[in-house]
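Q: Is it fine to ask for two folds in a single conversation?
A: Yes, each is treated on its own. Send the first.
Q: Here.
A: Result:
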Amino acid sequence: MGKVRRSVVIDGLQYCNYSEAIFRDLRAGGVDAIHVTIAYHEDFRETVANIVRWNGLFAAHTDLIFHARAGEDVRRAAAEGRIAVFFGLQNCSPIEDDIGLVEVCHALGVRFMQLSYNNQSLLASGCYERVDAGITRMGREVIAEMNRLGMVIDMSHSGPRSTLEAIELSSRPIAVTHANPHRWHPVVRNKPDDVLKALAGTGGMLGFSLYPHHLKDGSACTLAEFCAMVARTAELTGVGNLGLGSDLCQNQPDAVVQWMRRGSWTKEPADPGNPVVFPPQPDWFRSNRDFPTIAEGLGKVGFAKAEVDAIMGGNWLRFFDLSFSTQEPGK
């Protein structure tokens, strides 16, 4: 497949309640590729069941989507008017305590894995832990195995020390697929400047999140403020390692966010007086149809068209070409 003449649009992280309607929203928004979450707290067998469900979606909607495994699949999707779907894990739960399952997950088409999801895992510390102990002994081994296979290390929900150590230990650039700068909106899930500099300095990718809890002023965040934040980040890191990772959870019921937060690791009852619900999206990004609005906003804050194209998907595509190759850099 040759080069795609038009610019591509890639979303670096989603967890929508997928259906034909959402796939058509993606096409209406000009989206060529998405990284979808296929596991949060699931073990290996439960993750396989999720892949089976996705296989059913691929079979039912072959005119709209297909399972992607390499950067070239994004170009194919753009040429065919379909959506390339990349699988990712938001936690290391699916590999349980068996490093051999990393290769099995890769063979099943998984191309991203977070080393932790908010909590301490067997591999790294999550961002909500009181003490960030960094990368564990098993974590070092898993990073090397992911590097060998061509699976992206994602540190979106990990603590700063763990993230910096992963950047240092990995022979390939890593990703923070969905987060924003901490100095812009100081919540623990967003990343401090030293992490952003180290990430960009090693060729890693940051996907800007559109999830309201990660946005300054939450659901009331304006498009102009979001795009201005992207511009300020580009001044810190350069444009070449920035993309979008919307963290869009379109059409998901509120029960899902409760499960995302709590999984099965706690017996503490949910607080009925403070229910966990999905916050409303900002009015300029309510669904996958709204990606062109972001591109327009980036242009208005001073990005050249080539820079807008890079942030909307070109940078992710270059990263995919490098990251999913079985040949490690320098070898």
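Q: Second one now.
A: Result:
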Amino acid sequence: MITSAAIEPNLRPCETQDIAAIAAIYGHAVRHGCATFELEAPDEREMASRREALLAAGYSYVVAEIGGEIAGYAYASAYRPRPAYGGTVENSVYVKESFQRRGVGRALLERLIAEVEARGFRQMVAVIGDSANRPSVRLHESVGFQMVGTLRSVGWKHNRWLDTVLMQRALGHGDTLALRGA
């Protein structure tokens, strides 16, 4: 049995065989939480398609494995589709309920940050569902994100209005004039 103490996960690139576990983790978050404003849990086929699109676009997608079990996952995606936003990514981090508050999310986010910095991205944005999601806000603060603002009552889920919290962290050269990838 795994205790509530911090644990050291094996972090690695997401592989096709991880999709079932990822779909289960995300499905639970969709059905029971407010971190995502998605209302219907996507099936494994849709989750596989999303993964393939992210990898094809050059983004990072990592999993945390503990004792042969997928404990969580994280990925970077486009912040916005217009080319001017090309140096900015948005992050997503989800941890299986039984592994939460043990350092898995932080390990995943630190790995994701390192990977997107190495790829030349300059800013990372966290779009956190529900301003009451203090664990996610604290996680992002712990790795250098700063509060940018809160969009009040922009989502309706579980019969209530939810806020979106925006946080941001510079990557690599940040907003200096050095070119992306330089």
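Q: Anything structural to flag on that second result?
A: Two points. The mean pLDDT is 94. The radius of gyration is 16 Å.
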